[in-house]
Design goal:
Blueprint: E1 3-8, H1 11-25, E2 30-35, H2 48-57, E3 64-68, H3 72-81, H4 86-89, E4 92-95, H5 99-111, H6 116-124, H7 126-134, E5 153-159, H8 168-178, E6 184-189, E7 197-198, H9 202-206, E8 215-221, H10 225-237, H11 244-247, E9 262-265, E10 267-270, E11 273-280, H12 296-324, H13 326-340, H14 343-356, H15 360-376, H16 381-384, H17 387-402, E12 415-419, H18 424-428, E13 435-440, H19 448-456, E14 460-462, E15 476-480, E16 485-488, H20 492-514, E17 520-521, E18 527-534, H21 537-545, E19 551-555, H22 569-583, E20 588-591, H23 620-625, H24 627-640, E21 646-650, H25 656-675, E22 686-690, H26 693-697, H27 699-703, E23 708-711, H28 713-721, H29 739-754, E24 758-761, H30 772-777, E25 782-785, H31 790-798, H32 802-812, H33 818-825
Parallel strand pairs: 1-2, 1-3, 3-4, 11-12, 12-13, 13-14, 18-19, 18-25, 19-20, 20-21, 21-22, 22-23, 23-24, 24-25
Antiparallel strand pairs: 5-8, 6-7, 6-8, 9-16, 10-14, 11-15, 15-16, 17-18
Helix pairs in contact: 1-5, 2-3, 5-6, 8-10, 12-13, 12-17, 13-17, 14-15, 15-17, 20-31, 21-22, 22-24, 24-25
């Protein structure tokens, strides 16, 4: 067997490469290391005698390959040869291949039984695969593989299902398995349309770029072709020996040892301190079993039933998310709903069922894998991350088809959740009284899961060392979501500091909740109305329990999205009345349908495709294009207004013409109800959302048409700054505390008050503690926030005086950036 020596200035580097290379071939190739020098103060360097001893320790008549990093490593290797006999020297080959990639390619080729010249060739071409996958011109001639036409050529088609595809270790297993047979093995990635390559070449196999869901064509030519293909088929069917827990980890952490103690650094994702035993969360992935069906109609209907159930489940999640994380972030679940309605996807699944008589599970999963694969190919990393949404929805439908229980986490005792990552579906279902903290090995502070954790008040530290995945359940962990640190089995002094910080935080929360039902009055006597933003019937109870004095924004989209048809007047009436009855005489501001943009309705025939739907037919524009739909909603709101304090709010108003057109339809609805003898509140107030710059510019004219303004800073900030808040490359521009946005707020308030109408704000800025003093200083009469933010907001208002707030606001308007504004209020 050929031996391989790794020569490097760094002993740690060499040992790491040795470990990685050994994993590729499970120790089947002799490896030796010659690295570093015995100098504690300057350990970097190479020693010729070390190199000689390494060569001697693994010398083989089959040959020894020596790989080096740079500089003196080459000279040390050359000098080491002088200590060998002439006969031995002829068997030792110094190779200029890249150290890491060359070592991996060399050990795989050696394990496959290649001779020393073939092993050297593989090592030298080790960068070809990386260059190919990165789209770099490697300036090396491509290796063409002849097509075998002998009668003994056999072929199979297989789909790679393990999550990470043919990453380093599975690729090595494929090559070593192929090399066991006399047959000539060729493999082609037909999903990506590659050429056929040699199955016994690690570099050529790696250039195929095989990912989960990719379909391979494998051919074998020779007497043992059948056996070779059977072995490869078994290897792929067994996911290359990788179980689900391994698949959840990145390749580099497959053999990490458990973290035992000490401080870990991660990403500060959600503030707060948690100290509790750890519990691992590993959602089960459903893998369908393929079989043939006789009744394709029955199978198609079975899929339709599962999709409809999934739609209802996601609709519930959307309603939860609207209240918990706001409209903008809740659109992730709208995307999930749209995935279920994708006609191209559904037709592809239908074709598999009807033409190939495949069972629904396999047909569905095959198409989901194809979609996921298409996301993996995208160059934009943000778009690549959306594959998690595809997998989330795909698994939801698959669980329904197979009757597999959902990924529900039921904790007997409070704990810190440890996981590789959490999907939004996972996170939004967590119980904050049981899940005291979240610690994951991946994720970011801007992820949907992190945002949900913050709104739920669950401390979270993400991106920590993957060794936490090997901790035993029950191990005590502490984490500080503000600093981004975690401790395994923390020392007593660390616990003392953290417990003090946790108690202070909890005391603040409890004091705020205890005073939440009192009016929000500043120190100098100004009362500010604090209302709640809600998105379903269930949310109103939470709002009142949190101290809401009314509902400043009822998002009605939950009645429309995820349905096969628009809600009827009676269906809407029932919901509006139910919410109003809970509120009694407290205000209920109902925003009329705000769809379009990122929230289309599947049962409304789309018009001309919009290049930028956020600048297209959304909000009031959509409603005016569909007056029957709009009037049905207005009739339901009018009917519900009898005996209650209900107000109508029109979204996305940009012109006076839109307001007058909407009021004309409202007047028509009122006339119809009057003629039918149906009672309604004829004096019901009508207001508008101010979230478009043009509305700010003509706010004085709009104020003459309506009874109130409510500023929607979520959209206003992105329109003012010309930055899509969902685009991470420019999302930092859309900070509503930017002086440009704050000046828009000031102008709107001044115009409203000048006309004698009240002005509120229902954007997420109202829940930002850095903004409270500024918003009060700008003269807002009402702030509407998600229910969880109400206690802290009221507490903050009570600690301020209008005089000092006006001074802070005046200073903020003169600053240059949102960062400076935040520093001002810090």
């Amino acid at each position: 067997m050929i031996g391989i020596v790794i020569v490097s200035h760094s002993k740690q580097l060499a040992l790491g490469i040795q470990e990685l290379a050994a994993q590729m071939v499970q120790g089947k190739v002799s490896l030796a290391v010659a690295a570093g020098i015995e100098d504690p103060e300057n350990p970097l360097g190479t020693d010729p005698m070390q190199v000689y001893e390494a060569i001697a320790s693994i010398f083989s008549n089959d040959g020894v390959l020596v790989l080096m990093d740079l500089g003196s490593a080459l000279m040390s290797a050359e000098m080491a040869l002088e200590f060998l006999s002439l006969e031995q020297r002829e068997k030792v080959h110094l190779c200029e291949a890249p150290l890491v990639e060359g070592a991996i390619a060399a050990v795989v080729a050696a394990a496959a039984g290649h001779n020393i010249q073939q092993v050297m060739a593989e090592a030298r071409s080790a960068l070809v695969a990386k260059a190919t996958l990165l789209g770099v011109d490697n300036s090396q001639p491509s290796v063409t593989t002849p097509t075998h036409t002998e009668s003994s050529t056999k072929e199979i088609r297989l789909t790679v299902s393990n999550r990470l595809g043919l990453h380093a270790r599975p690729a090595a297993q494929f090559v070593t398995t192929a090399a066991k047979f006399q047959a000539k093995i060729q493999v082609q990635n037909i999903t990506k349309g590659t050429n056929k390559v040699r199955g016994d070449s690690i570099n050529q196999v790696a250039t195929l770029g095989v990912r989960q869901g990719h379909e391979l064509v494998i051919t074998a030519t020779g007497a043992d072709a059948d056996q070779a293909l059977a072995a490869l088929e078994a290897l792929i069917a067994n996911n290359f020996g990788e179980d689900d827990s391994i698949l959840e980890l990145a390749p580099a952490i497959e053999n990490l040892t458990p973290v035992t103690s000490g401080e870990l650094s991660g990403i500060a994702a959600s503030p707060g301190v948690a100290i509790a035993p750890v519990v691992h969360y590993q959602p089960a992935s459903v893998t369908p079993t393929e079989y043939q069906v006789e009744s394709v109609e029955t199978e198609w209907q079975r899929l339709q039933t599962a999709i409809e159930t999934a739609r209802q489940q996601i609709q519930t999640l959307f309603s939860q998310a609207s209240i918990q994380i706001g409209d903008a972030e809740a659109t992730i679940f709208v995307a999930h709903l749209l995935f279920l309605e994708d006609p191209v996807l559904l037709e592809a699944v239908r074709q598999r069922i009807y033409e190939h008589h495949l069972n629904a599970e396999v047909a569905w999963q095959a198409v989901v894998d194809e979609v996921a694969s298409s996301y993996h190919k995208l160059e934009d990393s943000y778009l690549q991350e959306r594959v998690e949404d595809v997998v989330d929805v795909g698994q939801r439908v698959l669980r329904l088809l197979t009757g597999t229980a959902g990924n529900f986490l039921e904790l007997a005792e409070p704990a810190i959740l440890v996981a590789t990552d959490l999907t939004p579906s996972d996170t939004i279902g967590l119980d904050p009284s049981k899940v005291l903290g979240i610690c994951t090995t991946s994720g970011s502070a801007t992820s949907h899961s992190a945002i949900i954790a913050r709104t739920l008040g669950i401390p979270a530290v993400l991106g920590v060392d993957a060794g936490i995945l090997y901790l035993e359940d029950g191990t005590i962990m502490a984490l500080d979501g503000e600093s981004g640190k975690a401790w395994v089995q923390p020392e007593a002094d660390t616990l003392t500091v953290l417990e003090a910080k946790r108690e202070a935080w909890q005391t603040t929360q409890q004091e705020a909740l205890a005073k939440a039902h009192q009016p929000a009055i500043t120190r100098d006597g100004r009362q500010v109305n604090v209302f709640a933003n809600i998105g379903s019937i269930a949310d109103v109870q939470l709002a009142l329990a949190s101290g809401a004095e009314g509902v400043g924004l009822l998002r009605t989209e939950f009645l429309y999205i995820g349905k096969t048809s628009a809600p009827t007047e009676e269906e809407q009436l029932e919901v509006y009345q139910a919410i109003a009855q809970v509120l009694d005489q407290q205000p209920l501001i109902i925003r009329t349908l705000d769809v379009g943009g990122d929230k289309p309705l599947p049962y409304i025939k789309p018009g001309v495709p919009e290049t930028n739907p956020f600048l297209g037919c959304r909000g009031i524009r959509f409603c005016l294009e569909h007056p029957d739909l709009f009037k049905t909603q207005l009739r339901a709101i009018l009917r519900a207004s009898t005996g209650h304090n209900i107000k109508i709010m029109l979204p996305m108003i940009a012109t006076i013409t839109e307001v007058r057109a909407a009021k004309a339809i409202l007047n028509e609805a009122q006339r119809e109800l009057s003629q039918a003898g149906i009672p309604f509140d004829a004096a019901m107030e009508v207001g508008i959302m101010v979230e478009v710059p043009s509305a700010v510019a003509i706010a004085d004219q709009l104020a003459a048409e309506v009874d109130f303004f409510s500023i929607g800073t979520n959209d206003l900030s992105q329109y003012v700054m010309a930055g899509d808040r969902n685009n991470p490359r420019v999302a930092n521009l859309t900070d509503a505390l930017h002086p440009a946005v704050l000046r828009m707020v000031q102008q709107t308030v001044q115009a409203g008050h000048g006309a004698g109408i009240w002005v509120g704000l229902c954007g997420e800025l109202a829940a930002d503690s850095a903004a409270t003093a500024i918003l009060l200083g700008l003269g807002l009469d009402e702030l509407s926030v998600n229910p969880q933010a109400i206690p802290i907001l009221k507490q903050a208002i009570a600690q301020l005086s209008i005089g000092e707030c006006e001074a802070i606001a005046a200073s903020a308007l003169q600053l240059d950036s949102a960062e400076q504004v935040r520093q001002l209020t810090a």
